[in-house]
């Protein structure tokens, strides 16, 4: 995400490398390039100008540490101001009082219905009882899509095929959810290809009727500044509580993420990074600033790992490692756990310095397909005891998995190395680093 903006900013900061100190002349040259980078990323021009003025003022102010490299100082100031521009700190969704009603609005094609499913999935994992209400009475596909998503994640849905009054439909849906004792109601509403008066009157009437605890506006981040302008028009009429940025995994320039908080004065609450139901993240301005500047996002990476972490299973695994009982079945389980965390390239880019190194590589979770196919082609005994794998067994496995002997031998070597490494960690030891 934001690769082009990140590259432009990096080039801008290089203008200060080798400079002994920050001066009005060299900072002006560097920040001129930063402003161009922001404008090219479709950041609102006024927002970009104010941002640059603030950074410049702080950079040449009395509090600049003279001993620090000028380019490092500018990166630090830009990072802090970017985070502030996007809200400073994360803002939690309001789920009180129960039942918490969440009204979701946005233009057609913004990813609004998919977001409803993702939010339901996220809140269900936290123990919430969910009902989705299909409030879009104009697009049959929206009802079908929401129904499929509800079945997929295992939550209840209220819909009325053929309904002609969206306000009445939503009211009945809320009434049913309350009768069932559910504590979270997520209302999907109609989108349009453009803002029109009928849409605004309908969504305003729905909000007035159900008095939601939270009204969220979904924005397609790939539309850049147009998304910001649309959000402003919606906010003027609807006075929503927060913004959701979708399609951040696409070819987004970043303008919406950076500008929208200032223009509408409402917090960015969530960001969506794909089509799968587990690709919704809370928006953290400081972490996003780190990502934009190529600093990675270790905190989010750890959080993703913790979501998939099973403490009891981890204890059993540690015991097996100590007894040297780690098998290919366990190895397969570890791979599948990593896959649940998300796209491998996205995960790797959260590690500082790695994102830039792999930006041109085509990496996705399919890299595990051959490994899984090979292990699945083994018998339970072979997975338990890889020493049984002689030449004839490997030939059989190669045919069954559509691979060759070289790939099987490579997997076995990786398994052995992983086993040794994991055993060292489990027993409190650390592998020795090679001498240079």
Report on this structure.
The protein has an eight-stranded mixed sheet, with helices on both faces. Helix 5 packs parallel to helix 6, helix 9 runs parallel beside helix 10 and helix 17 packs across helix 19. Helix 6 links the parallel strand 2 and strand 3. The protein contains 20 helices and eight strands. 55% of the residues lie in helices and 9% in strands. It is flat. It has 436 residues and is an alpha/beta fold. It folds into three domains: 83 residues, SRP54, nucleotide-binding domain (Four Helix Bundle (Hemerythrin (Met), subunit A), Up-down Bundle), CATH 1.20.120.140; 196 residues, Rossmann fold, CATH 3.40.50.300; 118 residues, Signal recognition particle, SRP54 subunit, M-domain (434 Repressor (Amino-terminal Domain)).
CATH topology of the largest domain: Rossmann fold
Mean pLDDT: 78
- What is the CATH superfamily label of the largest domain? P-loop containing nucleotide triphosphate hydrolases
Largest sheet: 8 strands, mixed
Q: Structural class from helices and strands?
A: alpha/beta
The level 1 CATH classification of the largest domain is Alpha Beta
Shape: flat
Radius of gyration: 26 Å
Give the number of helices: 20
Primary descriptors:
3 domains; 436 residues; 434 Repressor (Amino-terminal Domain); Four Helix Bundle (Hemerythrin (Met), subunit A); Rossmann fold; alpha/beta; eight-stranded mixed sheet
